[in-house]
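Fold this: ABC transporter ATP-binding protein
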Amino acid sequence: MTAAAPPPLIDLRGITRTYGTGEAEVRALDGVDLTIRQGEFVAIMGPSGSGKSTAMNIIGCLDRPTSGRYLFNGVEVAGLDRDQRAILRREYLGFVFQGYNLLPRTSALENVELPLIYKGIPRPERAARARAALARVGLEGREGHHPSQLSGGQQQRVAIARALAGDPMMILADEPTGNLDTHRSHEIMQLVVELNRTEGMTIVMVTHEDDMAAYASRLVVFTDGRVVSDRTTGA
């Protein structure tokens, strides 16, 4: 007998998200269906106000849908309380943002250790895992550097290492190259592709740049709160 296929990592069904009421109501998401499986690299695009960032926030458990179902690895997220959603974020998700979000007076190693502190991991293991994560992104020898001593591309690598240190099932990247020049942007995307193809890391990335989205193997386009296109890219 053939074993049943594992559930999708992300399964959004009829997701809506509205803000405000009456004439002031804004429907940011309008019946979104989206499935993402373990190991995919998905780029999400769309004009400003299309709903792509709202969808990312719901996937990352930073926001809750007004209606619809969200299953993460087969578990219904809507039934989780605030603390349980925080645990899901901490244990299973890694986040990378446009602005790096590094502590300026803290070394690269200490920045990468931060999520491990919240996990209650002992200091020696924290340091070892942080060093390993920095090595994965090509920053050996930079462990003691502060953000001001690193280029923008290096700072984003620290942010990616921080996301990886917690051993997540998926990385959510919100405009990860938005603050970088073209050369550094392509360096970061090559790193992301390597994490996806070599290590099987699931990547979901919001971007407004066509050349960055081209690195993904799948492109989902939002318009007016709906998915209007979902296709493989051949990348």
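The two ends are 34 Å apart (CA to CA). The chain has a mean pLDDT of 93.
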